[in-house]
Amino acid sequence: MTVFEHAGKLLVVDCGVLFPEEHQPGIDVILPDFTSIRHRLGDIVGIVLTHGHEDHIGGVPYLLKERPDIPVIGSELTLAFITSKLKEHRITPKAVHVEAGDTHRAGPFECEFVAVNHSIPDSLAVAIRTDAGLVLHTGDFRMDQFPLDDRITDLRHFARLGDEGVDLFLTDSTNAEVPGFTTSEQELTPAINQVFATAPKRIIVSSFASHVHRIQQVLDAAHAHGRKVAFVGRSMVKNMGIARDLGYLKIPRGLVVDFKKLQSMPDAKVTLVCTGSQGEPLAALSRMANETHQIQLNAGDTVLMASSLIPGNENAIYGIINKLTDLGVKVVHKGNAKVHVSGHASAGELVYCYNIVKPTHVLPVHGESKHLHANAELAVRTGVDPENVLIGRDGTVIDLVDGRARISGQVEAGLVYVDGHTVGKVTEETLVERRLLQEGGVVTVVAIVDADTNALAEPLEFLAKGFVHDEHVFDGAADKVKNALARPATSKVADLEKLESIIAETVSRHLERAYRRAPLVTVVVVDA
Ligand SMILES: [Zn+2]
Ligand SMILES: [Zn+2]
């Protein structure tokens, strides 16, 4: 999420979510922190969405819950995806449809939209004009010269904006470390066709539910090889329905059939297109691999994972590949066939853009620190003054005054965790506890204490879950607790909380020494 401020008004560009990593157990999604704009919701004149990926639109329902009538500005497909998502949250957005080449005024911001190519159709870059200067934000993009829909990144438009003078250029850093140019989506055709030409039984394709063009290639291959296709998984069925209705997905007549109808067809005629390309445990592919899905995979079936391998998901994905292989399924993935190209511009494309736009200032966005720095280096190599290449992190404030941009401060911008139906209730502290539970289990100590003397009125009781089960494990802990409570400094404390922390500390130290493990120790002190 990027927020622009001018003349007392705010313009939000994209509002996505992050997905949790292994050290964030139990978290559903992670939202941007709205703290710094929450008291100014009335000043927001619009949310511009560059494209329909979750990391750009997933947070919108949560922002609109705070103020539902903020105009949501985007292209046709982006608006269709966000509208359908908002429907699940019972919100009808105030949608403003724009197309590449359009200019739209939102308060003091004049927004001009530029076609860019990415791994989802209908993506836009946005130029924002104010009295302070001209900003160009690429959104996510690449420069595929032969896209399936012939809609290339509009470099002529970038050049016109460059001629006008781009004061601040925000560029996609995802692939800044990758040399050369990202290859065309069409270069996947031979490998996809190869799968369809040789698979003896069913073909199961997993992909992002938004990757319309990748799925188009799969549909074309299935059609060419006389197979039928069914979509499996709620988001896949929903998104492909939207893409078909709007004409972004072209489905030959009779090709796509209901899954139930496919069950009675010979295996060699069947293609299933499902979700779960990132190893998400609840998605169709994981459940098939774990044999908990109604679709049972058998020896001779082929799984085509036509997707990226997002860092952090490797273990989950390799786990699925192994399970599928154990079932006798042949797995074709980006590690053994050319079945994926990135949706993001590589270094060559970024340099190309810097040379065309000739920006005064550059702000690399969309990436981890190493990507931002790699992108910054590219900008400098094309001649941008190193002082004018700004590296920000979440919450960094940048002032653009008279065409000059400088980092000027920092606002609160932490991670907001969605956990079940709660938003922001799970904190870093909760996650520390969850990690402790994960690593060492939990030990609960029940202490019945005489509040006047601090002496234990009855022997301590220990309950352990996920910790070693050995009847002597707590031998010695009780004596140490007794000693700790008898120390002069702690006598007559009569403060149950204080007693709890003394007992917890003593038991933790004991277990740490005796077992080299640190379970979560909770203590319940009962006044005798
Ligand atoms: Zn994207
Ligand atoms: Zn993105």
From TrEMBL:
Q: Which SMART domains match?
A: Lactamase_B (SM00849)
Q: Which NCBIfam families match?
A: MG423
**Where does the signal peptide begin and end?**
none
Q: Name one GO biological process term.
A: RNA processing
The Metallo-beta-lactamase domain is annotated at: 1-192
Could you tell me which Gene3D superfamilies the record lists for this protein?
Answer: 3.10.20.580, Metallo-hydrolase/oxidoreductase, Ribonuclease Z/Hydroxyacylglutathione hydrolase-like
Any matching Pfam family:
Lactamase_B_2
Q: Does the keyword Cell inner membrane apply?
A: no
Which InterPro entries does the entry mention? Answer: Metallo-B-lactamas, RibonucZ/Hydroxyglut_hydro, RMMBL, RNase_J, RNase_J_2, RNase_J_b_CASP, RNase_J_bac, RNase_J_C
Highest taxon, organism lineage: Eukaryota
- Answer whether the UniProt record assigns the keyword S-adenosyl-L-methionine to this protein: no
The protein depicted here goes by the name: Metallo-beta-lactamase domain-containing protein
**Organism in which the protein naturally occurs:** Pleodorina starrii
GO molecular-function terms, A-Z: 5'-3' RNA exonuclease activity; RNA binding; RNA endonuclease activity; zinc ion binding
Q: Which UniProt keywords apply?
A: Cytoplasm, Endonuclease, Exonuclease, Hydrolase, Metal-binding, Nuclease, RNA-binding, Zinc
Q: Which SUPFAM superfamilies does the record cross-reference, listed alphabetically?
A: Metallo-hydrolase/oxidoreductase
